[in-house]
Write a structure and sequence with these properties.
single chain; alpha/beta; twelve-stranded mixed sheet; 17% strand
């Protein structure tokens, strides 16, 4: 499957739910979001059917997202089914880690290969501010260690950096790579949905994060990407066990190498994270669409991928917040 700009599409992100047990400030508005009713969400069978069609077209990697994917009932069963789809070489997952400690073993046994865990701060007080819920840092760290014990590696830690919120923790988060085999990635804040107006004053470019990190911790040398290709640029601190990565979604976008489509929990296929364009697969699935026609719809979505996002022109997606897309 090749898009209109000759980019091969090999990666499908699947949001399995738009519900979440956190209310992070950069992901949804203060009042939260009204999650879809159960009947509006794709069933396991519908998700598997989309994955089968995507695999026929050359998709090789599937990542499960949310909302928070671990709140979906029966998730290990879905992982097991996806891991058995012919052509799918890897099933991975992005989580906030709160429920990971009690689910890591079942997920690994089902065929999950690796996890990315969101961790924006090491301070319980700041965690409460960012997530708008109670304490959680120790549960997240316990979840990361459980994932490590059960072989869900390489483990990547994702930290969204916001000025005046957690930008002064870049060094302390990066130091995790000195003692732990956890790859820490710093992500530029993205203006998406109702949170878009929150972003401008809070934005910290990756170049500033890198400069601050080198001044406070030590020099960074370029490093290979752990776990294959991806959007981050990786570096290593002196004598570190793992790497530090920077995801420059805004300041230096990587759209020309984008290889992904996104399936929302309610069955819409999004060609681009930072565009409101969507194609409705749920309606087709529930009308009994043949697999060849489903493949044609997925190819149509790939053809709709833009050359790149238009944030520099102040074109910002507003129809969904990040929790409804899956990142």
């Amino acid at each position: 499957m090749i898009d209109s700009y000759h980019r091969p599409i090999t990666y499908l992100r699947i949001s399995v739910t738009d519900h979440c047990n956190l209310r992070c400030v950069y992901c949804m508005p203060p009042e939260g979001t009204r999650g879809n009713a159960q009947e509006a969400l794709l069933t396991d069978e519908e998700i598997i059917r989309v994955a089968q069609a995507a695999a026929r077209l050359g998709v090789r990697r599937v990542r499960l997202t949310g909302g928070e994917p671990l709140v979906r009932a029966g998730l290990p069963g879905l992982v097991s089914a996806l891991a058995k789809v012919p052509g799918i070489e890897e099933v991975s997952l992005t989580t906030n880690g709160v429920l990971l400690g009690r689910m890591a073993q079942a997920l690994a046994s089902a065929g999950l290969r690796r996890v990315n865990v969101s961790l924006d701060t090491l301070s319980e007080e700041r965690f409460q501010h960012i997530s708008r819920v109670g304490r959680g840092i120790e549960r997240i760290l316990d979840g990361i260690r459980a994932a490590e014990r059960h072989g869900l590696a390489p483990i990547k830690i994702n930290a969204v950096v916001a000025r005046g919120v957690n930008d002064d923790e870049v060094a302390s988060l990066a130091r995790l790579t000195l003692s732990e085999n956890w790859h820490v990635r710093f992500i530029e804040l993205m203006p998406v949905g109702q949170c878009a107006t929150w972003d401008e004053a809070r934005f910290v470019p990756a170049a500033e994060m890198k400069m601050r990190l080198e001044a406070q911790v030590g020099p960074l040398t370029p490093a290979a990407s752990p776990g294959g290709c991806g959007p981050a640029n990786y570096f290593r601190l002196p004598q570190a066990r793992a790497t530090v990565g920077f995801i420059t979604s805004v300041s230096r976008h990587f759209c020309r190498a984008c290889n992904r489509l996104r399936l929302t929990a309610d069955g819409k296929l999004r060609p681009c994270l930072l565009s409101d364009a969507e194609l409705d697969l749920r309606a087709a699935l529930r009308s009994g669409v043949a697999i060849d026609d489903l493949c044609a719809l997925i190819q149509q979505a790939a053809a709709l991928k833009p050359a790149g996002h238009r944030l520099a022109e102040h074109s910002i997606p507003l129809e969904r917040v990040m929790a409804q897309i899956g990142g």
